[in-house]
Amino acid sequence: MLRTGRRARRRRGRADQRTTRFIYPGTPVSQRPAKVDGRLVAGHGEGDLIVGQGSRSVMGTLCDRTTRYVKLLHLLDGRTAEHVCDALMHTFAGLSAGLARSLTWDQGSEMERHNEFTCAACILVYLCEPASP
After folding, report:
1. d(Cα 38, Cα 17) in Å, to the nearest integer?
2. Contact call for residues 43 and 101 (beta carbons, < 8 A)
3. Is the entire prediction scored with pTM above 0.85?
């Protein structure tokens, strides 16, 4: 018997066999334009979640790749895809068009609604490769 309570180990899939769990796979980081990769223009941000001890509190961060300007996403109700999408919409609504060009995020379940966010806010979301945030 294993420590987890199972009788036998489960095989994990190889990295090249993993697929995205999103309905709309999104645009991978490798397809970002050179001006985004080179950090030449402001307005291209990176985001992630910070989860507190015991998953009792959650905060989202948005950091501009050029200016290092940081905005916090207040996720008081939870970290589901709906809550993160609503918080992103609220945060980007307060920014000027010059500071809201694109967003890079990992492929966590909180970005399941990235396509809805892209359509509503006209901000392209780039997703990191699976298993390499």
Report:
1. 30
2. yes
3. no
Domain 30-127 has CATH 3.30.420.10: yes
Q: Which tokens hold the place of 61?
A: 């961060």
- Scan for tokens 């996403």, then name that residue: 73
At residue 71, the pLDDT reads: 92
The pLDDT value given to residue 70: 92
Q: How far apart are CA 34 and CA 94, in angstroms?
A: 27
Q: What are the tokens at 26?
A: 């999104």
The three-state (H, E, C) secondary structure of the chain, written as one string: CCCCCCCCCCCCCCHHHCCCCCCCCCEEHHHCCHHHHCCCCCCEEEEEEEECHHHCCEEEEEEECCCCCEEEEECCCCCCHHHHHHHHHHHHHCCCHHHCCEEEECCCHHHCCHHHHHHHHCCEEEECCCCCC
pLDDT at 91 over 60: yes
- What is the distance between the alpha carbons of residues 120 and 47, in angstroms, rounded to a whole number? 18
